[in-house]
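hey m, so remember when u said the tokens were messed up on ur end? i reran from scratch. heres the input so u can diff it against urs
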Amino acid sequence: MKIVIIGVGTIGKTVLQSLSGMEHTITVIDKDKDKVENIIEKYDVFGVVGNGACIDIQKEAGIADTDLAIVLTNSDELNVFACLVAKKAGVKNTIARVRNPDYSHQIMDMKDELGISMIVNPEKETAEEIFNLINLPSVSQMEHFAKGRVLLVEIVAEKNCSLIGETLISLGKKLNTKVLVCAVQRGDEVIIPSGNFMFEEGDRIHFTSDANSLHNFLSEAKLEKSPLKNIMIIGGNKIGFYLAEELSKKKFFIKLLESNKKTCDELAETLPKVNIIYGNGTQHDLLIEEGIEAMDSLVALTDIDEENMIVSLFANKMKVRKTITQIKSDDLYDMLGELGIQNNVSPKRIVANRIISYIRALSNKRGSNVLTLYRLVNNQVEALEFLAKKQEKFYNQPLKTLKTKENCLIACIIRENKVIIPDGNSSIRLGDNVIVVTTHKNFNDLTDIFD
């Protein structure tokens, strides 16, 4: 595919990094000459310096025969206008970043007229992920496949976790609810486990589950935790606003601490059900005064990673049951597990995952069989949903008779809306959706997973 990326800030670079190696032809546009030159040196891409909303600049980038324009500048208005220009120039698909809450609903209602195929809002989507983590206290991360029928869930084997010391075989004998453990992160190592694999404290365990069976599994495995009710949010930025707004619709008690007086006043006016506190949420005395020790969850959302990490560490020390930490820096992201910060979110990674999934879906129309893609464990693992849409020789054969590539696992089969957690006697049939988890990169077809 031919792709133009307009705006190569933090999210643009993350998307570009995720696309590298996928054999797309990519052109970047940015006003900053140094940014463009640095990217051209680092990646195999073309570059144009200039205003990405200008038709002449887009034409210089070859917009007329481009399959997809991704517009990620810091200006919502420019992003929308650039998509409209690209659409008029002949681009079939466009993605725009729109962040301002004031625009959210009207842009969604008007996106077809504006020539926008998909809207991404890093702050809103991050807030939605945090909301899901609060709603499911046992879960560290969750992704959806097959239109929500299948979940890819991450849990952490904390001290006294019932899974510690169990093997996959022994666990399977104890539990009635079937899930499939498909990847385990142990320190810096990523393991696609076999039956004799034994869980240890600190393991980050990824498994697939029927969406309707997740609660049953967590209950059987004694992993279910009581609901979180009292939530403290540090930071009244856009993520904090979206999260507090969503939580306030449910039965949560919410305190939001914000150090900017004007922002506090605006939040108090728009979020009447939320307790807005004016003050620096990273200060020890204020956190104590506002009752951090009585909170079930603390969400650290300041714009400074180090502050979020320190507040989260303090919350852990105060025995807050679940801390959730926003981290922007890739370098710091890798330290979190060792510091005991288990639940973290990265807006740029969340949006990059969405955009890559959209690109995979477009590629599917052009020959690829990938419907959905997620990258896990610091991009070391891919979870892909394939459509078995053409007859292959390995169909209708027990999986135990087939040889898959090393570090490659068939994690789930969806057949006529029925979710199958596979074992050795399961088989793939024409028309199935098949979820594969692997450390290999850039698979495009089910045939790629077999030797």
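this time it looks ok to me. The chain is about 30% helix and 25% strand. if urs says something different then somethings off w ur setup not the seq
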